[in-house]
Amino acid sequence: MNDSKFPKLLDYQALKAQYGEEDIAPPHTEHHSEQSTDDRVDFSEEVTVPEQKKPGLTGTRLRSYAFAVLTRKEYSKADLTEKLALYAEDRDEVIALVDELARENYQSDQRVAETLLSSQKRKGKGPNRIKLALKNKKLNTALIQEELKETDWSIEAYTLKVKKFGKAVEKDPKLKAKQIRFLQYRGFDLDTIFKVITRTELDDD
Fold first, then answer.
1. pLDDT tens figures, 184-204
2. Any residues with CB less than 8 A from the CB of 89 and at least 6 apart, and which?
3. Where is this region: Disordered (predicted)?
4. At what angle do helices 127-136 and 109-122 cross, to 10 degrees?
5. Mean pLDDT of the 81-108 span
6. What CA–CA distance (Å, rounded) separates 63 from 61?
7. C-beta neighbour count of 67 within 10 angstroms
8. Which of 37, 47, 114, 164 is at a distance of 20 to 30 A from 97, taking alpha carbons?
């Protein structure tokens, strides 16, 4: 290859020594030094996203929305209030509307509590888990206190135990502890659990 076709590399160190540091700059820095401050982007500034405005429902529009919500499913009073407040202009109006709907029985904490009880029992949940579910929905346990008392939780727990572990009474401490933890997690108290895990097939008669 003929070296004459290629210019010799500039010795910038030698040029700086001859003309001074400030007079010579390599080509790759020259473009940046000419960039005006107006063209530079300041990344330190925070980018703010404008908040979405809620619909601000009032009057008949709020009432219509409340009925539409209740036709889809039952809501506790607390849950309905919070749901409507997301779209309403005035929270006080929401509270007054929900109170009215409750008086007219369009909304009912009693119905919600009874539905929750039936659903939880079908899922194999014990009284402690059911009470927790009521608490999470801000429902008073007193609404279904009678139903809780009338339920034979020993039968509920035994049915669950047999389905999971079979009818045999477990003698191995580790396996017995596993059954206890399982039933505790499902919401049954220890008295009920110990009756269930020691129950024999003879007791079924």
1. 999 999 999 999 999 876 566
2. 56, 57, 58, 62
3. 19-55
4. 140
5. 95
6. 5
7. 10
8. 114
What is the pLDDT, as a whole number, of residue 75?
94
pLDDT bin (cut points 50, 70, 90) of residue 9 is very low
Measured over the CA atoms of residue 179, residue 181, residue 186 and residue 188, the dihedral's sign is positive
* Rounded Cα–Cα distance for residues 177 and 189 (Å): 14
